[in-house]
Amino acid sequence: MRQVGRRHRWVLAGGLAVVLAGCSWSSKPISLPPVPTPEAASPSAVESSAPGVGAPGLGDPYFPTYGNGGYDVTTYDLKVTLGPAAGHLSGDATITATAKQDLTRFDLDLHGLTVDSVTVDGAAATFTRTGDELVVTPAGKLATGKSFATRVRYAGSPEANRDPQLGSTGFLSSKGVTFVAGEPESATSWFPVNDHPSDKARYSITITAPNADNVISNGVLQGKETTGGQTTWRWSESAPMAPYLVTFAAGDLRIAESTHNGKPVRLAVSESVPQGLVDTAIAKTTAICDYFEQYFGPYPFDAYGAIVIDDPSVGFSLETQTRPTYTAMMLQDGDLDGVVAHELAHQWFGDAVSVAQWKDIWLNEGFATYAQWMWLEHTGNVSVKDTFERLWSSKSSPLWTVPPGDPGNQRVFNNSVYSRGGMTLEALRLTVGDDAFFQILKTWVTDHKFGNGSTPQFIALAEKISGKDLDQLFQQWLYGKTRPDHP
Q1: Are 79 and 88 in contact (CB under 8 A)?
Q2: How does DSSP classify residue 419?
Q3: Rounded to whole angstroms, how far apart are CA atoms 340 and 282?
Q4: What CATH architecture does domain 358-479 belong to?
Q5: For the domain 2-355, what is the CATH code?
Q6: Of 49, 104, 125, 344, which has the fewest beta carbons less than 10 angstroms from its beta carbon?
Q7: Hey, which bits of 271-357 come out as E strands?
Q8: CA dihedral 296, 302, 304, 306 (to 10 degrees)
Q9: Taking the CA atoms of the chain, what radius of gyration do you get in angstroms?
Q10: How far apart are alpha carbons 315 and 330 in whole angstroms?
Q11: Spatial distance between the Cα atoms of 178 and 170, rounded to a whole number of angstroms
């Protein structure tokens, strides 16, 4: 995610803008192989207090109530119909999961909306609502290891999350386009979900909208059918995806379609955005991905793309899987800051490899920031070295007071997570050399692709490949509260 707007903006030599001050959240506290099992919270954090009851949270140390215990989701089959009233939807979600314990009751996360019915394996289940928890009691016990399908039918007017610094997140509409974007929480605003990045799943997403609307979502378009005044668009994302990365946009969009390396490319821009520099910026998508492949390994997904929305209330762009979502105001200068590169780097770091816990967020944002610096250097802007030296030279910088490896739940998106996180990687590169450094990055993606990773795992990998004791380096750069030594 890249932030902009109502926060500080750090401008460096060569036109590079480095991201921004932190945020606090006001909503819920803040081929393929099998989906890998991530390093998660400690067992005691995810156990429920009563036998057979799935915990209402996964015990993430930053957001303990995010997600739910007792099961792992394999697939989501989402069918959503938009309208006819503006801002209204009806949904039919089938969630296939495997019980991790004997279950007589379990939770799903859902913000607002009215649930009409719930079934488990075709049998009617009872359900209650407690805040953002949808509590489901199936007709019979679900044994450990059992695969089961929960179907939820629901409807209503989705409620966006409002944050004083990031603005609006979740289910939103602006200038003729309805769309979804937000981190760490957005999925709950439009479908029932196990809302934590450690429970990644595959998605089928069917959106029915008026014929006049264009629709775009994650992954590959499997087909579309028109009946009367409505068109149904069927999308599929075959690679496991964290819930906050699931998106769609529907409405007044212009869409450019092509192929690259045999994969579909779809670039969607709100019709309210004048053709010009914004279109030029996202047209670089495949070139940027090709550049990153040299250093990070093959592009991990089956499709490329972009979604550009025109909503000044949204203060960020986001790495929604295969189709990053950008705000037009961040690209209106043709993307001099490398925002597109930042979100595309997330396709490797954040999407293919997702965080095990939200405290590991520097593995997303620090890595994407570093890749952004690499792209800007590649295109003739300020070098990575000069960016590092400029930031390090400021002895009184607020970067040194917030440790990016554990920023705290009120500063998950603090500038330190981005810039000092990126500097940590440059410090590592200077310490181990280019060959070992890029081998570390490629191996990180290979080892954790379509799964999750933690900071201790990354440190262990860096030490293994480099053959060096890196404890002091990472302790200073990730966890210290004073300026680290220059590497």
Answers
A1: no
A2: I
A3: 7
A4: Orthogonal Bundle (1.10)
A5: 2.60.40.1730
A6: 49
A7: 304-309, 316-317, 325-327, 353-355
A8: -110
A9: 22
A10: 9
A11: 11
